[in-house]
Design goal:
single chain; about 180 residues; alpha/beta; Rossmann fold; about 45% helix; globular
Length: about 180
């Protein structure tokens, strides 16, 4: 008979930890999230097709993928460090004046509260040599403001992390304190 072994990724005391890293492009969120993942031994995930989603119907992506990931995490109790999620849709849709489904986003935010979601909002006060194939630098203030506006509506725990100095050790220390890990 074939036996399978299920490996659960959890933090200390077997508690689920769900942490979303959000912020404007080039804010350092991927680098920081990957390092935290390595140190806490919690899987890191980023949608490799997110650039394609930027040019397509965000509403379909939001409804399908937003609910799907939540249900997986709720039902498995797995821990996860995720690069971007529904919070980004709220911020970018505001910045770009794009249609979105804010009631759905707020409902998802409420559901994630039951999973003790922690949101790390990375931002920079200055960018050196900013370059991105989708975002123009002049959109960064609008995107950052979009995150701050959504933070005011969110019921989850947020850490605003200024990543301008690119001091990874200091950033990880602040995040671990925020997560109490």
């Amino acid at each position: 008979m074939l036996q399978t072994k299920v490996i659960r990724y959890h933090t200390h005391k077997d508690e689920q930890l769900v942490c979303f890293f959000v912020g404007a492009d080039s804010s350092g969120k991927s680098t920081i999230a990957k390092e935290l993942s390595k140190r806490l031994k919690i899987p890191y995930f980023k949608n490799k097709n997110e650039a394609q989603c930027f040019r397509t119907n965000f509403m379909n992506e939001l409804h399908l993928k937003g609910s799907y990931l939540y249900e997986i995490l709720r039902d498995t109790k797995y821990s996860l460090i995720k690069d971007r999620d529904y919070v980004c849709e709220a911020a970018y849709s505001q910045a770009y004046g794009r249609e979105t489904d804010m009631p759905f986003i707020l409902d998802l935010d409420k559901k994630y509260r039951a999973l003790n979601l922690h949101i790390v909002f990375c931002y920079k006060t200055a960018h050196l040599n900013f370059s991105d194939h989708l975002i123009k630098e002049d959109m960064l203030p609008k995107i950052i403001q979009g995150y701050r506006n959504f933070k005011e509506m969110s019921i989850n725990l947020w850490l605003e992390l200024d990543t301008t100095d690119e001091n990874l050790e200091d950033q990880i220390s602040k995040i671990r304190s925020f997560l109490k890990r």
